[in-house]
Amino acid sequence: MTDVPVSRIRNFCIIAHIDHGKSTLADRLLQATGTVAARDMQAQFLDNMELERERGITIKLQAARMEYTAADGETYILNLIDTPGHVDFSYEVSRSLQACEGALLVVDASQGVEAQTLANVYLAMGNDLEIIPVLNKIDLPGADPARISEEIESIIGLDTSNAIPCSAKTGLGIPEILQAVVERVPPPPDRVNEPLRALIFDSYYDAYRGVIVYFRVISGRIARKDKVLLMASGKTIELDEVGVMAPDQRQVESLHAGEVGYLAASIKAVADARVGDTITLLADPAEAPLPGYAEAKPMVFCGLFPTDADQYPDLREALDRLQLSDAALKYEPETSSAMGFGFRCGFLGLLHMEIVQERLEREYDLDLIVTAPSVIYQVNMVDGSTLMVDNPATLPDPQQRESIEEPYVKLEIYTPNTYNGALMELCQERRGEFIDMKFITPERVTLHYEMPLAEVVTDFFDQMKSRTKGYASMEYSLIGYRKNELVRLDVLINAEKADPLTTIVHRDKAYNVGKGLVEKLKELIPRQQFKIPIQASIGSRIIASESISAIRKDVLAKCYGGDISRKKKLLKKQAKGKKRMKAMGKVDVPQEAFMAVLKLNQ
Amino acid sequence: MLQPRSAYLHIPFCHRRCFYCDFAVVPLGDHADGAHSGSIAEYLKWIETEIERSGGGPPLSTVYLGGGTPSLLTPAQVGTLLTALACRFGLAPGAEISLELDPASFDQGRLAGYLAAGINRVSLGGQSFDDAVLVRLGRRHRRGDLLEAAGWLRQAHRAGGLRSWSLDLIQGLPEQTLAHWGDQLNQALALCPPHLSIYDLTIEPGTVFERLQARGQLPLPEPDLGADLMELSAERLRAAGYGHYEISNYALPGHASRHNRVYWSGAGWWGFGLGATSAPFGRRLARPRTRETYAAWLGERLAPAKPLIELDPTAALPLPFDERVLVGLRRREGINMAELAAEHGLGPGELDLLRELCGPFITRGLLGIEGPRWRLSDPEGLALSNAVLRELLAWWEQRVAAAAPANP
Fold it and tell me: For chain A, is the Cβ count within 10 Å smaller at the N or the C terminus?
């Protein structure tokens, strides 16, 4: 199966917004080519993490090899490379695009182009990919293919005269799409005779075989038992297995330029075979690696603490193991007088943070306290040094600092123009600086702002969605650091400083945030047997305070013979609930309270 | 281990199901009566069979007919049940034999019949003196019915046929104010019941009240007002000479319910009828809660020619430590921790640990330790008893888990 000439290989990906039907379309392609028999079809074959299924989004990309007999009677190999559909993973997207010569641009024929789609289309065009527009969900009553085609032309400048109408749900248009992939996506360049260069576009950790690496051979040939060099990490490995995803892994002897496959080589951690690295032969190395390799840099940080201090070693082990499969996850031990032992963790973005948190709780059965997300601040000290601070509680005192700089992003929002006002108000509240607004069609606009990342990583996305009934979409990218008047806002619970609730805010917002925070905490912390003062302070100055009055009644009204077992169960359940709270001094604080700063507007 | 000396009989029939009630009940409609109900007659056969085929034991010193609305039974039917118990166990001289009565479900003649059949204590389900509240609770009776019924009970009590009687009230009702509740207490005290049970309204799953609450249509008192109501009850009744002998129970001297004290003491009891729980020799058994499932349960056990429930008094177990604590601390006298510790094999080190664990409660005056006796203060400790119980229950659970063999 690897004798196929380069001219009959097509490598392509699908670019689509969440919910526009990418996974369903992929399923249909697998079915139509007989790659997966209908009876083996689990809905959405490519998204095989439980979490992805539940959320209907692709986090980890995957690939599948299909055989397709085209109109010319020849059998072609079509490699579909899936791309993650979330802004947190844009680096992975760029690598998977580099492994392709073409892309299907899937747009919901009733919804139109969304911000994330656009960002990825531009990436694809930058990589010289042939783009085939596909208008999906054409069977829905609200579909308006003519309007959406026009929108694609005016926004992206793409010729939509040969856009393919399709319904992944009913199977309409699927043969046309396969034929278009063969006819319109160029075959990979024939570089079989050059030295081996293969691009890693994904990897995952397998408990038995070590890291499984997904790659595209750009030039040369790779075979089982080859000794290869990973050019960025400098690691040398001997390949145990080389194969293709059809879509289950199937071993082959070798793969040549243009092909997509996987390898296993008892690699211990994904960090040793990072996405974007170049594989070459140890004996006959390529002169230079493929361009574009970068190490994932965490943008969002938070503290992770076990609710029960006894689970600290378990948490460490779980993080160690997660890191084997998630090279972007960074962590280091953090100790707090209020919280005990835990970890400060860095993530690509909020979704990445949520995924890690959920995996820790689900797969490792840990009860965690997660503190509100923070960005990384650059602190210019009086003595001329600079300090990078990713934990607000460790921000040096004002007299030691000269200034603080915070990361800014370029933010683009796509929205029906009816929501302009609401969104501009939101951006204003979040210290956004208006750059421009463009009408892309008479009904849709793009808003362009520059905004502190800290304002984006709180509940900005949720707010944007709720203020636009879900219609707006956004995309952001880091543009650098800017100086701002920032202060450290501390929270005291029962007169003790609660480190994990410390935040860094703009001086002009400090009073409102402080007031909102103590009010929210009053709501979230259950009443206890004594009065609990809650205060917000800047330095030693208290700027807001509230108190939670003592509970006075907590009793079972009735308890006779038949009630005893049930009442015992009830009390035990309550005791477990209490155990899930974190004891800060004498006060039991529930998990939600540590995220209070994100909930000030609710 | 002592043989049980108490029996509970469950009579599930009611005219209607009240809106707060989640008991095992069978509503039969407003005109139902034991005299002409086939359902009741059929059920009484079952429960008599259960009594006859039980293992038996020494004479009973307390019997409680609860429900449901046991006053739907005729005096003759109550008499038959008591006879069944007397045949199988015997009734000890001076035994306390209680019957729950609902206002508007009996008259003075019927009361006399119950007393003649052997009943000597009555618990009257008054719940409220406010007609609007009674409507809201889904009760069938009204204030006039309650006053009339209480009058008959007072008369019977004075005449000596009725040894004692109790009035049930519910506090913490929707929209209740402190003034309203004070007035309710005054009306109750005016009837001079020797015993009062005052229950906080609890919203139970599956009830009409639960649905109303979910829809936001049940404006219950704020927690602090709830606490005020509770304190007011304790204060008023104490001033009127009632002893607060259990969280929800008050009695004039000598009138505490002997039967209910059995539940809180950790001693065993027999139970008969659908939904009834029995706990002889430390073995708790809750019977099925519907007529069909109860009849099937009974049928299964009747087939072999042996006692209904095989019990070996020599293999008796104490009720678990956590249950003893849970019920024992509800009482004014609290628990004898030294005795409990000995019974459950707690070491002296463990007792110290428990004391340390409860240190904050002691400091705050909720819990008092005098020698071997642990007791919650009245009213603060009783009002916050769940906090203390959660701590003790969680400790015990952990101890049990640690002692259990590790899973393979």
Answer: C
| pLDDT of amino acid A19 | 67
Q: Does A571 touch chain B (CB under 8 A)?
A: yes
- Taking the C-alpha atoms of residue A522 and residue A592, their distance in angstroms, rounded to an integer, is 12
Residue range(s) in chain B whose domain bears CATH number 1.10.10:
321-403
pLDDT digits (tens, 9 = 90+) for B233-291: 999 999 999 999 999 999 999 999 999 999 999 889 999 999 999 999 888 899 999 99
Q: Is the Cβ of A567 closer than 8 Å to some Cβ of chain B?
A: yes
User: Which residue do the tokens 């007999």 mark?
Assistant: A69
Contact of A300 with A375, CB cutoff 8 Å: yes
CATH architecture, domain B321-403: Orthogonal Bundle (1.10)
Higher pLDDT, A584 or B110: B110
B385–A555 C-beta distance less than 8 A: yes
Q: Identify whether B379 is preceded by a cis peptide bond (ω within 30 of 0).
A: yes
A556:B385 CB<8 A? yes
CB atoms B387 and A554 under 8 Å: yes
Average the pLDDT over B13-25 and give the result. 95
* pLDDT surpasses 50 at B408: no
Interface check for B327 against chain A (CB to CB < 8 A): the answer is yes
Selecting from A553, A556, A575 the residue whose C-beta is nearest the C-beta of B393 gives: A575
At B191 the three-state DSSP class reads: coil
Is B108:B76 a contact under the CB 8 Å cutoff? no
Is B233's Cβ below 8 Å from some Cβ in A? no
Instruction: Check if B135 contacts A (Cβ < 8 Å).
Output: no
Within the 501-540 window of chain A, which residues sit less than 8 Å (CB to CB) from chain B? 527, 529-530
Say if residues A88 and A349 touch (Cβ distance below 8 Å).
Answer: yes
Q: What is the DSSP string of B302-363?
A: HSSSS-SS---GGG--PPPHHHHHHHHTTBTT-EEHHHHHHHTT--HHHHHHHHHHTHHHHH
Tell me the β-bridge partners of B7.
B63, B270
Domain(s) of CATH 3.30.750.200: residues in chain B? 6-265
Total-model pTM: 0.73
Q: Is B363:B377 a contact under the CB 8 Å cutoff? A: no
Q: What kind of architecture, by CATH, is found in domain B6-265? A: 2-Layer Sandwich (3.30)
What number of H helices and E strands is found in chain B?
A: 16, 16
